[in-house]
Amino acid sequence: MxxxxxxxxxxxxxxxxxxxxxxxxxLMSDLAAEPALNxxxxxxxxxxxxxxxxxxxxxxxxxALGAQSVWKYKAVKSLKAALAGADxxxxxxxxxxxxxxxxxxxxxEKYGIYQPVGDSTGPGGLIRAYRTIPMxxxxxxxxxxxxxxxxxxxYTNPMTLCVRTLYEVFPKIKAFGCCHEVKGTQALxxxxxxxxxxxxxxxxxxxxxxxxxxxxxxxxxxxxxxxVDLLPVYDKFIxxxxxxxxxxxxxxxxxxxxxxxxxxxxxxxFKRYGVIAAAGDRHLVxxxxxxxxxxxxxxxxxxxxxxxxxxxxxxxxxxxxxxEEMRSQKEPYKLRLTGEEGVxxxxxxxxxxxxxxxxxxxxSGQLSNLPNGPVVETNALFTYDNVIPVNAGDMxxxxxxxxxxxxxxxxxxxxxxFTGDKELGFRAFLGDPQMCISMDDAHALxxxxxxxxxxYIPWIK
Amino acid sequence: MxxxxxxxxxxxxxxxxxxxxxxxxxLMSDLAAEPALNxxxxxxxxxxxxxxxxxxxxxxxxxALGAQSVWKYKAVKSLKAALAGADxxxxxxxxxxxxxxxxxxxxxEKYGIYQPVGDSTGPGGLIRAYRTIPMxxxxxxxxxxxxxxxxxxxYTNPMTLCVRTLYEVFPKIKAFGCCHEVKGTQALxxxxxxxxxxxxxxxxxxxxxxxxxxxxxxxxxxxxxxxVDLLPVYDKFIxxxxxxxxxxxxxxxxxxxxxxxxxxxxxxxFKRYGVIAAAGDRHLVxxxxxxxxxxxxxxxxxxxxxxxxxxxxxxxxxxxxxxEEMRSQKEPYKLRLTGEEGVxxxxxxxxxxxxxxxxxxxxSGQLSNLPNGPVVETNALFTYDNVIPVNAGDMxxxxxxxxxxxxxxxxxxxxxxFTGDKELGFRAFLGDPQMCISMDDAHALxxxxxxxxxxYIPWIK
Amino acid sequence: MxxxxxxxxxxxxxxxxxxxxxxxxxLMSDLAAEPALNxxxxxxxxxxxxxxxxxxxxxxxxxALGAQSVWKYKAVKSLKAALAGADxxxxxxxxxxxxxxxxxxxxxEKYGIYQPVGDSTGPGGLIRAYRTIPMxxxxxxxxxxxxxxxxxxxYTNPMTLCVRTLYEVFPKIKAFGCCHEVKGTQALxxxxxxxxxxxxxxxxxxxxxxxxxxxxxxxxxxxxxxxVDLLPVYDKFIxxxxxxxxxxxxxxxxxxxxxxxxxxxxxxxFKRYGVIAAAGDRHLVxxxxxxxxxxxxxxxxxxxxxxxxxxxxxxxxxxxxxxEEMRSQKEPYKLRLTGEEGVxxxxxxxxxxxxxxxxxxxxSGQLSNLPNGPVVETNALFTYDNVIPVNAGDMxxxxxxxxxxxxxxxxxxxxxxFTGDKELGFRAFLGDPQMCISMDDAHALxxxxxxxxxxYIPWIK
Amino acid sequence: MxxxxxxxxxxxxxxxxxxxxxxxxxLMSDLAAEPALNxxxxxxxxxxxxxxxxxxxxxxxxxALGAQSVWKYKAVKSLKAALAGADxxxxxxxxxxxxxxxxxxxxxEKYGIYQPVGDSTGPGGLIRAYRTIPMxxxxxxxxxxxxxxxxxxxYTNPMTLCVRTLYEVFPKIKAFGCCHEVKGTQALxxxxxxxxxxxxxxxxxxxxxxxxxxxxxxxxxxxxxxxVDLLPVYDKFIxxxxxxxxxxxxxxxxxxxxxxxxxxxxxxxFKRYGVIAAAGDRHLVxxxxxxxxxxxxxxxxxxxxxxxxxxxxxxxxxxxxxxEEMRSQKEPYKLRLTGEEGVxxxxxxxxxxxxxxxxxxxxSGQLSNLPNGPVVETNALFTYDNVIPVNAGDMxxxxxxxxxxxxxxxxxxxxxxFTGDKELGFRAFLGDPQMCISMDDAHALxxxxxxxxxxYIPWIK
Lengths: 461, 461, 461, 461
Hints:
alpha/beta, globular, 461 residues, 2 domains
């Protein structure tokens, strides 16, 4: 890597989960569009074939319309080969297959627990964490060994526990997690500005939102735009949306298009708590007791979908076809920018300009009334080789309680996996907000879900 | 009050709720049995008639068989009259009538929430707190004005919020709360010693139990007796009880006799968490989600009763009759010692010997991984004019989470009442572990319960 | 105040100490040079004559060469008149006269304590705080009453205790303190870049320095510039300066020119502690025991001056003459920008662009291993109507100890003044690092210094 | 070890430093006087000859007048031999010889620093810690290996750092430190009761003193006796002592008789701070800056002695003669009880009755406004296999500052030795309250003291 004339050349990026047929293509676009950087991306995936396919696709991106830089992509066969010499590591993996995800999401329905996503919290999130944490232990150990100075960017869910595991294994790791959910809420604020203030708010640089919480259960307690306090604006916007039945779905975010909601939960939470929940409704409801998902009918009444894993499986087929099509270069490549901040973050960490954005890292005081250590989501200042949390202050008391409960349970899950303690894990399972069922049912559900995913959790004998 | 030759004479005790037909008679017995003290007890009650009746009964106790001291009882008509000059204040009141209690306990059943007691937590505990806190605000203000140096002993439920209110209004108050539930668990330990070790454990002085938690949701994480660790003994005892279907009900505690349980929940919690839950099953299940009370059938399967308020109303009739009988002195009085520690505590605070016992006071570090300020239950050393908490250490992580959740919610209830914020109160209501219902149901239940008790909660407009 | 087209017009600034013949003129220059703002400045001073003189001078600035905006200046006779309607309040006062300052600085010399400045800490700083805190109590009360929503910028020393007093009286005040000392150290870093790296580092936007500590005893534990870690660069620079006897005095800062040092203490501290002390040597040595000022000879050996108050009195004469000259407008005005960030901060708080800079505000977690509440100096993000501390992390253990000691003593001084407790104040006096004298001498010195300044400290009877 | 009928037989005690000619004989007396215990004491000492002598003496104690139990003493040649199978470990060693102690105490005098004892703090205490910590690392490792379940009682100075080292090496160690200084202050309180109240206060069970601080720098902020607050009594007592020139020296404590003071410092501190310093003046002054020891004349004016190591060397000669005399059994042995609480503590830990006393253990919240981890001195409850700290509450703000400074510096010393960082150690040296000298002098003194003791600090290359 060479820093010269406000450019960095010869950058080395390791992509773990490099066979991905979504995030990987997005990153390829974003990198190709960036004139200030170039270098090599090593693609590692347990599905080596998929990585090889992405090597072909990645190397084609230099020909895309509007490409500003040339990157070399190379599929490799081991974590070591990917990591050695890396300046940055990107992690975006699927822990297990859609079959395990099917159990995560749908088995609890037999006992009356409904999960729209099932990847971050709830019984599904816990079992997914059971599979994912061991993988992240292996990744963290490899980073400690082969790339201890690299910056690590995680996109995998459960976000909080993934990043937390990296720090647990290797406390000096320079890792953080990125998620676009807060951007979605900022887009909603922009819509509010437009509707209520007749303002034109072109991008996120124009407003300041103070972000507090954990990934997918983040909250905004302050939002300003050009000298205006946006919270009362948002309040009026909700009334307007309700009165006029305005459509507030995000339409143009490629990642969200199959997973719609009308923000009815987010709006109800604002009216009750006075602060803005900053993730999608489908995520939010999973961090709370049965309030919005007691039954499918209750969910329906709040206008969000209970995504089936069947739809995800269908999506996969489409992406496999797309991969083949891209490899064949039938059509000229187009740059489809993700709107993710990964490349901006990389630039800031290289010393190419400071960046203020939200990020998932261990709390070291930025959320002043939550415990230090667990991973939280707040704003941070990205500067040369440093991610410095910005003080997000105290969370509002009654929202803090909701978030702290999640943090506590996630810490318990972490301990359970690290110590191989299935019974401690069950106590975490019991502790989940959605666990409004009898002790006997809870135990039966736990055993059934474990049985369904057992090949990925060898730590449970 | 005069301290002379290891006796204290001329002590002045104010009894708020002095018309009580239970606690009051117990205290009269205990005082009469104590040779080292004498003095005057002022009885104050909003039901002045009841206080007058107790004046008669109290003054009769000097004639009881075995009485060691003479106390003068006097019904008074105002808090001021009761408190002026008091050395000690005893508070034992019923907030509202059994009609309000009926709504507390039984209205939630319509929405699928079952409460065996409904006085400490759950929707019933919250609404009871709504009634009680304003009364305790008035009491605390009167103490601050008329008896700021007196020691205050509370027996009223919800214990934690009653004591917490006293300190919130008058931070320098010298108050604590007493509860006999931990004694019940110590009796169970004595039974375990007897069954498993063939030991004879005559009283609580022989063992040390480290108490942690909040009232009615207390836990014992260390218990020793003559060089023996009692936790494995308790574990074996549970196996033995289950195998042999032993009866472990407390039989001789007058206060508990109508409210039986077989400790099945307490035993299950020990097997799951490894520490001893130290309150009765009927209380314990209310501090947890639906695990043990999802339905009446689930409750039945754990062998504890869902006490009806109807039975309480019947009990009241018997006590009214008893009061009349006692006033008539038909039969000679007997001293029926309560086993409560109130009189021992009074003696220790007067300088008549140190006492180590469990007590409810604000956390000032004794529970080192719980926040300071809220009222917790741990051991404390009673010495002259001082109640010094003994370090109870950290609570075990997964139990701490359960307790902290309760603490947080109780703090929210307190704030709601003090600020008159009905919506904040609803957020506390939502935050209760038992609130496993939909948002719409929760809101309907809240409004219905408030309507049923509205004359006692003028702070809600 | 009107926000329109990226400009703010009709801004109202209250200047307390508006008769100042230094800071006030600097602010006038800075405001005149700023095209995006205009408005009115109310000048309040207990020396109303001085304020009237500054009214004339201020109103002349619109004619200065290069002036970009027109400001109206108006001397007023009361705090109320100055504050009513103010958007911003600037405080820059001299507590007492140079006679009191003479005692602050020179009386301790009789007992073997030498202070180069005597305004922030040491016996001189304590007595100056005794005079200043009552004035700031009055100011804070007036702000609470007449301008509770205004932002308050303090320049007065002792900086930490002045800002701390504002928050103690009015916890919701929006106040912060500004000081240019850290800028001086950043200039030294720029010199190091130039000498060691042959780099050209034109301004502070190019590097990131993490600031930690209290005013005049601040430390930089991280400094980077275009991808370079500056701490080893600074280390080499020190060796080079020592080997070549390079002159490292700041020459062009108007405020510092009479108060030179060669940074020998700052360099010795870096070699010992490994982090950069970020204030001038004359300030730094006062926060430490006798290490660098045991005797005047020791001070001489470290190449910094023991500034006499005599020189300050002479300076005052020159400034009085300058004031007369300026009022007469003999020569055309020139804009002499201060390099202070006051105007940039005002713009950021108005919503005219974010600003990252160092600032003095109460710790709310930004210095994570120091107590919350006391005023500390770290970086903060200025955004619309908000000053958000950036996490400065933990201070290095052995430096933290030095700083925490100062914080503790300052808190004690605060309590002493607020409670009128002269003896508690003496214990703070004893607790100062420089108090390496016998108990009897300490007491005699305390009484003597109090006697010398007694007309300004009516709270000591 | 067998527990039977309220006795414990076959107890095994390891005595490290078992050649001691003071503490060891005291323990022998105390054990012989205790009817409820018997067993074996292994004596280990690097001076094996001395241990052999004590084996003879120890075994003679069974013949002492009034002996209640028979103990077997055995000199052993290794830590392993001493520790294997031990129930209790007593540590009382001299780190180095009186020659090193001579440098500790007297070398600083050349630079103007006077230390009456030089074993706990100050430059002497630091260098003594440099020698002692490595020895305690070795001891802790041996305990972890050979006697991990034994209770460990330390008497060696520097007490705080010795106990702290044990926990640093072996966090699960069951260790505490004992010191009789607080008892001395309790005796002074008894004298106050006698003089001022005409009370007869026969022993420590009659009063409650709340102990706070670190060893030799402990404070009593609450003291009561039979319903009386003793702080005003102590205040009057001081006035009386000063007015009447009463002798307040302890006369009958064998350990203190050569080391007199008139408590003038303790009394002055009470008059200034309002709480009782609970160690001897000779210790107290060393934890403070030059206030009471600026010069030998200042020390003289406060009526305490600057003990010379010469006198200690003379004392040693007398004890050597005494050892020979005892081995020859010329005269019948007498039991000379130490008044130390070691044997009472052993009994309580065995389950033979609870004990409340002061003790040195890591802070886990008992001193609520001091950091957790460092070793502090407070009351604790000794019960079966447990030492439970009693909440000592917050230290008074201005006293806390004094104590916290010591704690911080001791933690720095610990880190310096554990990491072998001589320069960090120098920063601790600089941080000592007595270090009121110039940087150059401090550095010269540090190097000289290290040179004088270098054979015992191999960790400094």
